[in-house]
Amino acid sequence: MLGSQSTTPLCPLMRSRRESPAYEDELYTNKEKRKKMTSYIADSAVFIMGNCNVDSSLLITVPSVADELKSSDSILRFDLAKEGGLRVEWPEPEMVKEVRKKAEQTRDSEELSKTDLEVLAKALEHRETAVLLTDDYAVQNVAVQLGIQVKPIAQKKIKDVLIWQKQCIGCRKTFEKGDECPICGSPLKKKRKKRLKGKGYQEN
């Protein structure tokens, strides 16, 4: 009849289950499991290489990664991963600042792209439960300094953390940064300043 509405739920069984304490406990347990479950932060190589054996529902990346994908195969892998549960999240600005600061300390900042910084920032945000998937040595170098777990995709992982400096190919003077020697004008070449024992790696 017009003017009368039924108060009977579409699915009484579902309603009674949702209102039960057991269902609330189940939701809480599943939420806690997701918190403890390992996530994988994916850089562009995951979709370019296509040999990452990780469930898409456990993958997290940043929007700028999609912008770096040019081939139809890599774009298809990205789209399929999204359908499978890949999460695309913007990095937190404070995390980006922290990553940039650390990259300047290790002298890797000149090697890192905007996307590299954002992927590292997202990995830092999920540091307690995430593993960073990358083959980029500069990204790995900064990640380990930030206490981020790293797993390479196809390349060999770096063994140690490296601190870099610049050395003039002419007068041999060393500097913290720059491309040209302020003394003689010759080009500056990247040179290892310090080697630290690396931690935070996972085997392939």
UniProtKB/TrEMBL annotation:
One Pfam family, short name: PIN_6
Transmembrane is among the record's keywords: no
GO cellular component: preribosome, small subunit precursor
Domain of life (superkingdom): Archaea
GO biological process: maturation of SSU-rRNA
Keywords: Hydrolase, Metal-binding, Nuclease
Single GO term (MF): hydrolase activity
Domain spans labelled Ribonuclease PIN: 41-125
Name of the protein in question: Endoribonuclease Nob1
Organism listed in the record: Methanosarcina horonobensis HB-1 = JCM 15518
Classification lineage: Archaea, Methanobacteriati, Methanobacteriota, Stenosarchaea group, Methanomicrobia
